[in-house]
Amino acid sequence: MKMLSKISSLLIFCCSPLLILMLWLWINLQDIIRTLPIKANHSYQILIYSLIAILSINIGYAWYCNRKNKEIGIFFTVFNVVIFSCYITNYYFQMSAITSNISQVIDTDSFFYYPIGFLLIPLMYNLIIIANYSLKKTDDNIKEENKNHLINFVLIILIPISFYFSSYLIICLTDFQFVRLSSILLFFIFIVTAISFLFFMLRTICLILKKRKDKKDHENIIQNKINTVFKVVVSLFLPTAGLVLNYNMHFIFGEFDGISLYILVITTAFFVSMPRVKNNFINLILFIGSCVTFSYTLYFFAIFLPLFPLAILALLVFGAGFLMMVPILLFLIHSQVIISDISSLAKNAKNKPFIGIIFIVSFLSIPSYLYIKFNNDRQLLHEALEYTFSCDYQKNYKFLNSERTYKNLKQVIANITAHTTTSREGLSSNGKLPFISGLYRYIVLDNLTLSRQKKEYLQRIFLARIDHQDNNTSNVNFIIEDTPEAHIQNLNSTTFYDTKNKFYKSTLKFKLKNSYNRDNIEFKTTFNLPNGCYISDYYLYIEGRKERGILAEKRAATWIYSQIKKRRQDPGILNYISGNKIKFRVFPFLAKELRETEIELIHKDPITIKVQNYTLKLNDKNSNFANRVEEIITADNYFYISANAKNKLPLVKRKPYFHFLIDNSIHSKSSKTNFKSYIKNFLKQYPKQVATAKFSLVSSSSKIIATGPKYENEFDKISNNGGFFLDQTIRKNLVFNYLNKNSNYPVFIVVSKNLNNAIINKNFADLNFCYPDNEKFYCLNNNKGELISFSLKNNSKHPIAKTKKISLNNEVRVFNYHNKIVGYLKNDDQASIILTNDQFPTTKFADEKAISHNYESALLMQAKYQAMQLKPVYGKTKFLELVQDSFKSQIMNPFTSFIALENDQQKIALQRKQKETLKANKNLDANQEIEPMSEPKIWILIVIILAFFITKKWYSKIIFRKIH
Known about the structure:
Blueprint: H1 7-33, H2 38-68, H3 74-99, H4 110-133, H5 142-173, H6 179-209, H7 217-248, H8 259-273, H9 280-304, H10 308-317, H11 322-345, H12 351-363, H13 365-389, H14 403-420, H15 436-444, H16 452-462, E1 486-498, E2 503-514, E3 521-528, E4 533-542, E5 545-548, E6 550-553, H17 554-566, E7 572-578, E8 581-589, E9 594-603, E10 607-611, E11 614-618, E12 632-635, E13 638-641, H18 643-647, E14 651-652, E15 655-663, H19 672-683, E16 694-698, E17 702-707, H20 711-715, H21 726-740, E18 744-751, E19 776-781, E20 786-791, E21 799-802, E22 812-817, E23 820-826, E24 832-835, H22 848-851, H23 855-870, H24 874-889, E25 896-900, H25 904-919, H26 938-963
Helix pairs in contact: 1-2, 1-4, 2-3, 3-4, 4-6, 5-6, 7-8, 7-11, 8-9, 9-11, 9-12, 10-11, 13-14, 14-15, 17-25, 23-24
């Protein structure tokens, strides 16, 4: 224990936690504090300046001791205990004043949990020194030692009981109008009780582990046996009891379960309790084992140290609160064992570096194992996400050829579910294991999550999981029905032509009405933007003021919208769903409330837009310049072709060819013979198409097996595996045809017994420029070989109609540049953007003021996005560039959203989440249930227990009145 009296120990155990706490408060509160009222700001200053004062006192005293060559004095440690006790009390009330003014979208539980841990470390350090000092008389006096054992035991029992009676007395003597005074007194007594209990508990441990030189051999043997029994109880029996209790209480502190955890308990107990012998090699093995398991001990110490004050309350309410103190006891014992081992093994100065290296390597073994395991999960998950959502069509994904990969991916998805699932019961916030779940999310998921829809999507592709629903689960966010309760009461528009920049600006003015006599109604609808039309601004009227929308990263904006919606505050949000389809939501509406909102659009040509039952023609009839529109814009590797210019392009008919996409998943293994007959019967109707027909077998990957009638020779050679990943196969072939600028085009014929087994992500609207000839694909299914049509552009899992004959005579526009075919365009009345190749446009945005709300900036973003659809792997490297382009131009694109927020704290929460999403893989999700870290919500329990006391008093008063 002499080590604790050294200056280095004071700096480590007192000054370091205070410095970390100051940094933590600054990081988490610096941007929030400016939005708070003056009183809350004043509370924050009190906390920070008090912390600086305490830190300065400790550093100053350490400097003084160093100059005088002194050890830490007992009077200073007593002073520190008083100071830290007062600061903890002050911290609770000041932070309560601060958090009461913070919006609920910002997690405030951690403002209490982490600081308690930081402050209890120096408090425990000082209490250990005082406890050790108070036992000096026992050095040469066995009677004094036994007397102290008795005193400690009695006080450990009496302190919680005295807290109960004193608290009950205060509640009974104060009426409800003195609630604040009563709560202050209760909290003060609670702090005093907790510190007193901790002191005598530490004093007992010091006494048990204390070694007296004057003891005789038989006394040392007895003492060693007592120590061993004590260590076994604390390291084996009590932790096991705690795990069992936690299990029976539905994992209230975290999902601490599984055989590996019980093995760790037994292993730790063995290395901690095993008596050291005279053989240095055996002692070295025991030392290494103690160091390896010390990370386990430290983990539970970190979880339960902030919960120590609650152990006093839990002793009264649950009767098993002592088990909450076991990790602290085990940490102290384990630390003493390691220190004792180091002292005995490093007697020779030459051995000290060697022992130090052994300690570091051994201690880091379990954390290193977890890091490697988590990193392997990350690598496999991100490779699967890349293949699924950001595929490089030219790359050979080797992991698809390994069966072990599929098994590992199944385990990875299970791990993600475990570490990102919020516990609805108990005190453990989200995740399976406190801190470890947070670390898992940080390493594997970039501190985000994987949505349920994407997990199911991956399971269907790689693990052949069957979707029993009619709709693909990935379509949940795509299919949005208009709300009948809140509807558009009126919609009008204004349009003017910007003669300087040569484009239109239109404003859609909505009046939204809640027709129901019910509060908290949400308005939601979807509408399609015409080609070449973009959203450049958004406004929502909140409490009479016109609040301008913020352009934010899409996942972050969606996350903050869902969080605010839970609190029934005022958000409005716009974002792309698929292709040009926009999702528009506003919340909340009070009963019969009328709300106003505006959307600003920019477009090059006059357009017609439909929103629900309203059709608006957006054109500036009063402008003399309105018809002087540049019909073709050329830039980098893309062209913008206006509707008028496109109508002047020549019409051609391209030659169709059938591309049969045959279900080769594990579920269609028994249907290959039927598939052959379906195809034969179908081709009899189109004999001219037989020679050019292509055939692909589609499972989790796809392969073209033949062109022409020889496909049957290859049909049976490839075994069935995985799921029916139709989405990627169609995309790959659409892109291939677009880039090759062929005079023919594919007509997809899907051959499957049930298209519900097909895996399709929403639709193919983002590639609508790749299929100008035909917006349909077809399916031979239902065990009869019937031909059913489906839409490429809209919900692609919903059948349109049974079809007897496929139309193969559609005309398209052909665009030539310098006598070369650049591409084919759909024959409609809308503008088009066409890319010459799949290279990402290299044009960079200039000065932000010059490009803000500029139409050519919108065209450049559109071209970049289309390039990303042609080559999805660009999503890995170019996603951030597109988000930044949207911010610079202040024009929404498919990776951003416009969101209107009610207050500055909501905007801060949005900025924080956006920092996370912009650093993360774009294929991950910002789920509203994910928080930065995972920790027990300790203050909920305090409220419950105080409510218990108050309710008991109220009940006693009623009984008293009835008796009299």
